[in-house]
Known about the structure:
Layout: E1 4-7, H1 17-32, E2 36-39, H2 51-64, H3 87-99, E3 103-106, H4 110-120, H5 133-141, E4 147-150, E5 158-163, E6 167-172, E7 180-182, H6 190-200, E8 205-209, H7 213-225, E9 234-238, E10 241-243, H8 252-264, H9 269-276, H10 280-287, H11 294-304, H12 313-319, H13 323-331, H14 352-358, E11 369-371, H15 373-386, H16 389-401, H17 413-423, H18 430-436, H19 438-441, H20 450-458, H21 462-475, H22 480-494, H23 500-511, H24 519-526, H25 528-543
Parallel strand pairs: 1-2, 8-9, 10-11
Antiparallel strand pairs: 3-4, 4-7, 5-6
The chain binds glutamic acid.
Amino acid sequence: MTTRSRFAPSPTGLLHVGGARTALFVYLFARSADGKFVLRIEDTDRARSSQASEDAIFADLQWLGLEWDEGPQEGGPGAPYRQSERLAYYDECVQALLDSGKAYLAWETPDELARMREQDGAGFKYRKYEYDAEDMVEFEAEGRRPVVRFAVPLEKGKIGFHDEILGDVEVDIDEVDDFVIRKADGFPTYHFAVVVDDVHMQITHVLRAQEHFKNTLKHRLLYEALGWEEHFPKHGHMPIINRIEGGKMSKRDKARAARAAARAAGLDAAGLAEKTGLDVVTSQAFLKKKNDEVAIAVRVAEALEIELPEIDCIDFRRAGFLPEAIVNFLALLGWNPGLRDDEGNEVEILPLSEMAKHFSLDRVGKTAARFDREKLRWMNGQYIRLVSPERRAEALQDWIDHNPGSVLEEWDADRRAWLVELYKDRLTAFADLARDAEFFFVRPTEWGPAKAIKKHLLKGGGLDRLRAAQAVLAAADWNEEALEAALTAAAEADYDGKLGKLAQPVRVAVAGGPVSPPIFGTLVGIGREESLARIEACLAHHAE
Ligand code: GLU
């Protein structure tokens, strides 16, 4: 039987790292088994689903390189792959359960339900209520729409399944509510749709995050009630992803970071409102952790000039991470490839195609994974150096496209490609390039830090050396070899061959400080006129 695994996102927001990790494992599993990777859109929550989210999820998966075999646009034997287009299938199956008494209508309004819950306390379990015919006529006249609930077969006593990652699980069936399978708006709930779809789409393996673990018990009951036991797929629940400092990673982390910055700046609600332009009530709610909206966090971050942690796939794309690095990093959040190189060191850098060869569920861990941002940066740097120059240029272009207004836009593609080659050894993300190479585009008006200025310009005749270097450079052809030859010859003649005596003052003058890529490339990048003008400006500034 062909292995078929699926990624089933709900298009209710952006694809975050957790979702991307799930998609990746599902993809790797399918590829490792020479099977099919199915993409299904779970849009049964009408209020929260949107086409924009769906499109963004497709774009993120494509960016990550996780090509799917069947999906809403591609079609396939399980079509349609969007739940909102499958209502007829669900209705048919709901009807079968109603007809056999395995499901029933329930008429409570959300308010009534909340009251019932309150009365019964934490142990509340929904069980079938008998309404008389008169009640139902009244409910209908009031415009109530019933939901359909599954009648949990309490007589079974226990319910369990075998998890490919976590092992055998079993709970008392009494712990399970008579859960809703069709909502009042006629749409199925997640629990119901997922079971119908996994069977119709002949899914052999359901891999998803541990958050869904308990849901699988409910699903197991539905498989049995629908007479589909033999179609119950293999299930594997992946470890949750924690922040490095502990606690589950979530989109709230943006609010958390922004709040910490607001506190560190000593802002109260009024102060925050003034700084951000938000109203005081919203600012207060934000500071008191009552409102964690990302839009507010973004506003606070802009006002306080801090960076928010990347959480969604698109955040990483905007920050200049390579998808090659992201997938490699995400794969190690829960999967241990167990590979060693010839020297016995653990192999961590594994491109997607290699991972697909080695992936297996028995090397997926049970305990929470930790999202180590430092390690991700390190890995991204590795990939920036590992990929071809063409790929580097393409990825840089993608970064520029996602960061309109960056200084890098001032150069054409060829010059930018040249620049990224000059910097590749020191980058951890493309955002570094825009920051570190800014001086190529903007003439320095200040030079620093003071210590470096003292050392390279003010002490030991630095300014005279700079003047001398200026004359040597001005007389040379403006290419790396000629500039190097000229300055080296001058250093041989006058400074015991110590090139740094000339090169360091030049560097400080043109780059505004003592850090730049190799100096001759830097000079060529800045250009003859501009380099000489910068040296002149620096001499004039320090002569004052
Ligand atoms: N739509 C669910 C989610 O986004 C899918 C869970 C599953 O894979 O069954 O969490």
